[in-house]
Structures are given as structure tokens and as C-alpha cells.
Design brief:
This protein is an alpha/beta fold and 288 residues long. The chain has twelve helices and six strands. The protein folds into two domains: 77 residues, 434 Repressor (Amino-terminal Domain), CATH 1.10.260.40; 197 residues, Endonuclease, Chain A (2-Layer Sandwich). One of its GO terms (molecular function) is DNA binding.
Amino acid sequence: MATVESQTGPTVLRILLGAQLRRLREAKGISREDAGYAIRASGSKISRMELGRVSFKSRDVADLLTLYGVTDEDERAALLSLADQANTPGWWHRYNDVLPSWFEVYVGLEGAASLIRTYEVQFVPGLLQTEDYARAVITLGHADAPVEEIDRRVSLRMTRQRLLTQPGTLRLWAVVDEAVLRRPIGGPEVMRGQIQALIEATKLPNVTLQVLPFSVGGHAAAGGAFSILRFPEPDLPDVVYVEQLTSALYLDKREDVDHYRKVMERVCVEAEPPDRTVEILSRILRET
């Protein structure tokens, strides 16, 4: 079985390198179009590089460093080494057959995050799902997929969960709508097993779980589920992840992140406090 990397993964390394290249370009007052011309590419390619959305060719990075006036050999070597590391496939590379590119970015960010705050309105957060529950959820979204594909998707989700128990542990703060716990995904037995697993998860020191009860009525996060990821690297801003049916949004502009952060804080205040979670889960378990 593969071991999930605790160190910074290639996704974050690409973002860090892209941010450094952007700073160097802007310091010289060079446009994206001119930078693209220097490496026989377009301005949009430079934009994707600076956002960490594509892999890096060492020759392109070397040419850009020359264009940006970086002549110090140690600085050049460090950035070129970062480019090589950023191109190293992550552990999830072996799941490429079932991992869409838009979600591959999230898996990389998730593996490098120090804190994930998430609000869920329909399903238990993926990092807290049991295998049976995960299989039921995945089957709902891929009803026509063969059993082998479903198995691989479930395996990917279970492997991601090791982040919660390995060294350099990720901290997860999840708020789930009461509807998540009342909806019998996979049937009553699967749901009972899932609720029992959530009770066990609350014992982990790095997991905080809150329930947003129906009695709250309307609330700030009525727009749907989202996650906010924070990283230990000071150069990386928080990222808001909003998943759609066939794609996802990754928001890192300060105004967007601030808006979602305020919504998350309000939801945490409106939800039942964490010390009541086991009591609520146990009650629902008795009723299931």
C-alpha cells in the first residue's frame, strides 16, 4: 500500500514556484505576453505556470530566470531544483485513470494543508467516510461504472484518509448539516456504521466536528458546500474549494477567501458546539 506523503507535495511546489516566477516578472515590469514569447509560448501559458496549474520544463524556467535578470547561480539552482521537485508525480498519480484533473489539484492541496475547514450539506466529508458509505456515495455519482472502477475510486478515498493519522497531522474542522446525518445513504445499516465512525472520529485530537441542526433555519452557508484550506507555507494564501458536478472552483483572491471565511465562522457559531456532537450523533443513531 502506498503511504501518503506528509511533506509538501508537487501541487504546492508548483504553486510556490509559479508565485516566485510571477514576482520576478512583475519586479522587472515584463508582461505575460513578452515572457511567453521568450519561451516560445503564449501569455496564457505564463498565467497557467504562475498559478501552478501546469508542469514546468527546466529549459523554460531557466529562460525565464535569464529574462528576469536572475544571474546568481545559487538562486537559479534553487529555483531549477524546485521545478524538478514540482514535476515529481504525487502518490495519487497511480489513480489517474479515475482521478479527473480538476480534482487532482484538490488532492494535492489537501495533502499539503495544515488545516481544512469544511461545510457539508449532503454527504459526510470524504476524509470521514467509512468504506461502505464512500462506496454508496461514489456509486450514486457513477451509476454506470464497472465494479472495478468503483473499487479504485473507493481505494483513493480511503488512502486520502491516512492524512488524519500520520505524522504532521492535518487538522480537520467540519460542520455538517443535520440533513447529512438523516439521509440514509447506502441504507440504514451503512448509515449506522457511518454515524458510529463519526463518533469515533471525534476522539481524534485533530478532528473537530459540529452539527448544524434543522432548528437553525436559514443560514449563511445556504449556497452549498465548500472547504477552506490553509497551508504551513507562509507564501501560500488560503484556498477556497467549491466542487461542482464535473468541475471545481479554486478561489484564492483575498476578497473571496475573506467572504467564505466569514461565512464559515458564522456557521460554526450557529452550529451546535463541538462538545454536544457525540450526544447528537448518539441520539440520531438510536433513531436510525
